Amino acid sequence: MKQGDKQGGNIPIRVTGSKELGADKMARNTATFDANAPRLRKPSWIRVRLPAGNAVASLKTRLRERELVTVCEEASCPNIHECFSKGTATFMILGEVCTRRCSFCDVAHGRPLPPDPKEPEQLARTVKDMKLRYIVITSVDRDDLRDGGAGHFAECIDRTREINPGIRIEVLVPDFRGKGKLERALDVLAGSPPDVFNHNIETVSPLYRNVRPGADYWWSLDLLKQFKARHPDIPTKSGIMLGLGETREQVDQALRDLRKHDVDMITIGQYLQPTPHHHPVMRYWTPEEFESLAKFGYGLGFTHMASGPLVRSSYHADISAEATGVVPRDFTP
After folding, report:
1. How far is CA 28 from the centre of its chain?
2. Using an 8 Å Cβ cutoff, are 206 and 253 in contact?
3. Among candidates 154, 207, 144, 203, which has minimal Cα distance to 176?
4. DSSP characters for 277-326?
5. Phi then psi for 238, rounded to 5 degrees?
6. Maximum alpha-carbon separation in the chain
7. pTM over 0.70
8. Buried b (16+ CB within 10 A) or exposed e, 294-323
């Protein structure tokens, strides 16, 4: 595939990129987890009861018509039936191919296509058709782009607001890691700030090499802190997964680190192994342990803690926003 100018000077030709999943994606991963570890039996609190109706198929058809992708599908989220049945989704822009090989993630790795110039308009029109009041926009990591995709985020935010007056927008961004990239990304987003700024640290610091190769714990924390310094009135948010081998003491320290970096809201959920080739589940944390972490987080000063086995970073994002005042409880755009 010809990528054209990776620094964004020329518009590259849109041709099919490469895409690796499962074993192919993990074959060159630098993580050193035990791929042969026995698979743990899922406890009763992990089982998901599917709702009646065919809302998932119906919404998927609508999304494909607009050439849109949702992280709900690409990341095999366990809440997809609940969210889709209510006509909500987290939109994943910049394609479905990621430039990283994280050992926990089911999103494909490979060489992504250039950003689609039609995507901001398609997203805005779909939000209007679905009559949504609150959306989350996220993306894969785009290390091939000079600004990490921040400019495309801004275009999506601006066009969605133009067509949907009063809409509230949360972004769940990648880490914009690379020389000068974070500063460029923050400069771009300063002109089109979201209503909530979310970036997941995903796991505790000691596990980064095996869980998030290519990422850096302190870089992610600095991204959150720098955005907050520029936009003190916009809530910041992050999330972590449990079950990758972390200890309670390490999770507590991660929450302390997040609070010291001025993060307002936290999501904590149970990691679920997407394929046998990904990082194994080392332990299933109990609902009582998740409740204990929520209590600990509120004690640190977080304004909202969403902590439970099936919680994901975008799950009930509108409810989290209501708790912080971003969305009035009687809000209708």
Report:
1. 23
2. no
3. 144
4. TSPPP--PPPHHHHHHHHHHHHHHT-SEEEESTT--TTTTHHHHHHHHTS
5. -150, 170
6. 54
7. yes
8. bebbeeeebbbbbbbbbbbbbbbbbebbbb
Instruction: Give CA angle at 77 (201, 93), nearest 5°.
Output: 70
**CA 73/CA 225 separation, integer angstroms:** 30
User: Which of 73-77, 131-135, 289-293 reaches the highest mean pLDDT?
Assistant: 289-293
- Rounded to an integer, the average pLDDT of 170-187 is 94
Q: pLDDT for 210-222, tens place per residue?
A: 888 889 999 999 9
CA Rg, the chain, in Å?
Answer: 19
Helix (H, G, I), strand (E, B) or coil at 197: strand
Residue 209: predicted pLDDT: 87
- N- to C-terminal Cα separation, the chain: 42
Mean pLDDT on 40-52: 73
Distance CA 140, CA 163 (A): 25
Pick the closest to residue 185 from 266, 239, 92, 193 (CA basis): 193
Task: Decide if pLDDT at 233 tops 60.
Answer: yes
Predicted local confidence at residue 2, as pLDDT: 33
